[in-house]
Design a protein that fits this description.
Structural class of chain A: alpha+beta
Order of helices and strands of chain B: EEEHEEHEHHHEHEHEE
Radius of gyration of chain B: 17 Å
CATH topology of chain B: Rossmann fold
Largest interface: A-B, 35 and 35 residues
Helix content of chain A: 55-70%
Number of domains of chain B: 1
Structural class of chain B: alpha/beta
CATH class of chain B: Alpha Beta
Strand order of the largest sheet of chain A: 5-6-10-7-9-8
Number of helices of chain B: 7
Distance between the termini of chain B: 19 Å
Strand content of chain B: 25-35%
Number of strands of chain A: 13
CATH architecture of chain B: 3-Layer(aba) Sandwich
Number of strands of chain B: 10
Shape of chain A: elongated
Largest sheet of chain B: 6 strands, mixed
Radius of gyration of chain A: 31 Å
Oligomer: heterodimer
């Protein structure tokens, strides 16, 4: 046992000395591999964190949303639908919502505008998202001007900035009182954008949605689980597109690294011949090559993963945020919650470390199975 | 005792460039003393030493070491025999560049997993014996020819082998350094080791302890003279 440990220590010593002897080549390989892992890990960590963030925020979203459609398009929902919805067995509460979009040519961005009856807002007051406040350079007490549907500007006093913790969904959000909202968009009374339902048993949400669709044929019930699934699909799609866009450079890097790792120089082949001639077994050479591959690729993995972690969770994920967050202009500036997923780490190890180790083992094995008498012939 | 029975060696078998390096060698080598294999270039001296030292297998024939048939042994066991029985000094020294003299000397013992302290002490003792202790931490590429040859000799002895195989040990040395190396080989033979040397250098034949001179030509043994 002790001899076996000592042998591994000698092999590691030799491998480290061997790596240091080819400093330039190995540093180059380390850099390329670190970059590869960094890119892969950045996309995976950011995608995962965004999915988690969205899921956390949607936890408090209503179980069922009901919209009215006309000719397959969304239309305003009459207030008497709310009474009808409350009558459906399993529905404990039905509430009308007012929300819409507002295009601001000044920053070329769409804002999400909502009426917030649960907040004590006067008709001329407004709450705005932190990103929007930053982009427009306004704060509490300032006047925020919007163009009303009728043409004249509507002036609102900023009563507060929305919590930065919810910035993923509130980056571009404007909250108004119900009367303020109706005035801005000139909406008739007794009309809502959609309705949100609270159900007694969330597991029955699907059945309730079916009942709604039957009793109100022009309605479109949307379940929370469907919204979550849509978010997942959107992030999956964006992640895949990012990997596709990165495909060419990643492949080029991977081929370069594979080529460098897999090709044994004449000097290395000669060394393997000498080691065999002086008493090393093929197994010893393979163990030495295994250590070489493992030391280099695991160092690259660790460096790349830590850099990606720092970039995503502490550096604002600037590298891939525009692609993965996907907001048109107003990119939310929020801290993602750091998470570690074993499955994700295993996937990364499988696509980065494993090929490298194989790339170093195979040529080492080929050189090691040759008769060592070549060393005798110089 | 090493015995070769009808040993032949062919390279590139079945190809247009097939060549016969050794043919029907019958030989018995006793323990101890210095045996020199001589002959012109291409006569098969080095090939014969690689077969005796388990660095390659014969195409046909048998090699027996102390009653154990070597020619059929699997690679792993052959390495085991090579590691414990033979020490090699190569014509081109074959030291690993970038490593120190001490590391080069310790290399053959790495797979045995001997305790580091004991191994270092053993390697330093060998370096001292060959006047290389001041060079222990020097990189081998900085050594002179004589120092490199003595380092190769120390490396060959680290596992305390019974047989030392030296291929043209004076080929890259001047007369003074050649005599110095031959003196060291003489000392090793005096301690009871078997020393097998391939050479066509007259200085080697004249060495004090040469007890047998075997002559090869065209892959055949044509002379066997005991001194």
């Amino acid at each position: 046992m002790r001899a076996s440990l000592e042998r591994q220590k000698y092999l590691i010593d030799y491998t480290l000395a061997s790596l240091l002897r080819r400093k330039t080549r190995n540093l180059g390989l380390l850099l390329v591999y670190t970059l590869l892992v960094f890119l892969f890990a950045s996309v995976l960590l950011l995608g995962q964190a965004l999915r988690r963030e969205a899921a956390t925020l949607l936890q408090d979203a209503p179980e069922v949303i009901v919209q009215r459609t006309v000719a397959g398009r969304h239309d305003l929902l009459p207030a008497d639908w709310l009474d009808h919805l409350r009558q459906i067995r399993g529905v404990s509460e039905a509430r009308g919502r007012l929300w819409g979009y507002y295009y601001d040519p000044a920053v070329k961005a769409n804002y999400t505008v909502m009426a917030a009856p649960e907040r004590p807002l006067a008709e001329g007051e407004i709450l705005i998202g932190a990103t929007l406040a930053r982009v427009r350079g306004i704060g509490v007490g300032d006047v925020f001007s919007l163009r009303a549907a009728g043409g004249p500007p509507a002036l609102f006093k900023v009563a507060g900035i929305l919590e930065p913790s919810s910035e993923l969904l509130s980056a571009d959000l404007l909250l108004l009182s119900e009367t303020g909202f109706r005035a801005l968009f000139q909406l008739p009374p007794e009309r809502y954008t959609d309705a949100v339902l609270t159900v007694r048993n969330p597991r029955e949400a699907g059945t309730i949605a079916q009942k709604i669709a039957l009793s109100l044929p022009s309605s479109r019930p949307i379940l929370r689980s469907e919204i979550l699934r849509t978010y997942d699909a959107v992030f999956d799609w964006r992640e895949s597109m990012t990997f596709l866009a990165l495909g060419a450079p990643l492949l080029a890097f991977a081929i370069l690294a594979w080529d460098k790792a897999a090709g044994l120089s004449a000097e290395e082949k000669r060394e393997i011949g000498i080691l065999k001639a002086i008493g090393w077994e093929t197994g010893d050479i393979l163990r030495m090559k295994l250590w070489e591959g493992a030391l280099l690729s695991l160092t690259a993995f660790l460096l790349g993963y830590l850099l990606a972690w720092w970039q995503v969770f502490h550096g604002g994920a600037r590298l891939f945020a525009p692609v993965l967050k996907g907001w048109a202009v107003l990119y939310p500036d929020f801290r993602l919650t750091p998470t570690v997923e074993l499955r994700q780490i295993l996937v990364l190890l499988a696509v980065t470390v494993a090929p490298y180790i194989i790339a170093t083992l195979v040529p080492g094995w080929r050189a090691a199975i040759a008769d060592p008498d070549a060393a005798m012939r110089g | 005792m090493i015995e070769l029975r009808a040993v032949s060696k062919r390279f590139n078998q079945g190809r247009p460039n097939e060549c016969r390096a050794l043919a029907d060698i019958d030989l018995r080598l006793e323990r101890g003393g210095v045996t020199v294999f001589t002959g012109p270039s291409g006569s098969g001296k080095t090939t014969l030493l690689t077969l005796i030292g388990c660095l390659a297998r014969p195409t046909s024939g048998r090699i027996v070491l102390d009653g154990q048939l070597l020619s059929n042994l699997p690679e792993r066991f052959l390495t085991e025999v090579r590691r414990h029985t033979f020490g090699f000094v190569f014509q081109q020294f074959n030291l690993i560049r970038g490593l120190t003299v001490l590391e080069n000397v310790m290399l053959p013992a790495y797979p045995l997993g001997r305790p580091h302290r004991a191994l270092t002490a053993g390697a330093r003792a060998l370096l001292e014996r060959f006047d290389l202790e001041p060079k222990a931490d020097s990189k081998v590429e900085w050594l002179s020819g004589g120092e490199a040859q003595r380092t190769a000799l120390a490396r060959a002895l680290i596992n305390d082998p019974a047989v030392l195989v030296a291929d043209e040990p004076t080929a890259n040395l001047d007369s003074r350094l050649s005599r110095e190396v031959l003196g060291l080989l003489d000392d090793l033979a005096a301690q009871g080791r078997t020393v097998l040397i391939s050479s066509h250098d007259p200085l080697v034949f004249e060495a004090a302890r040469v007890c047998r001179r075997l002559e090869l030509r065209d892959g055949r043994l044509i002379g066997d003279r005991r001194c």
